[in-house]
Amino acid sequence: MNTIGMLLAHLAVVDVFWIIVATREIPLEPDGDDLIKEVIGIRGDDDGLPLKEDGRHPKTLAGKSLAEYWEMLDAARAEVHKELQQWTDDSLDSTYALRDKHITRSWTVYHVLEHFAAHYGQILMIRHMMRDAGVLPMK
How far apart are CA 96 and CA 102, in angstroms? Predict the structure, then answer.
């Protein structure tokens, strides 16, 4: 299963991808991936999601501490904040092209929030399972 670290890294990747790379229509290869790495230190596929068949934690995240995952997420959020400060209420209805779709900025903001909520729920479930298994202390 995904680790908490993988999920935190994934949240950072997704924030930068959807709010900056996608809405600016930056091609993911190589420019978007370079931008993601510049912001959070890993490329878009380096988060280990989707989980590979062998189910292993990705080497790109090996040895990272919880503080380093929070730094990735903080860096992503800082860049997203800068980007969103440039958006106006009127610009939320504007669209951008992604593959064969035209997507509104308002849907993008909704999607990123919904995505965060879903994965944060996963993180909470993993923590609960770890406490039940005796890996984390009961609080």
Answer: 5
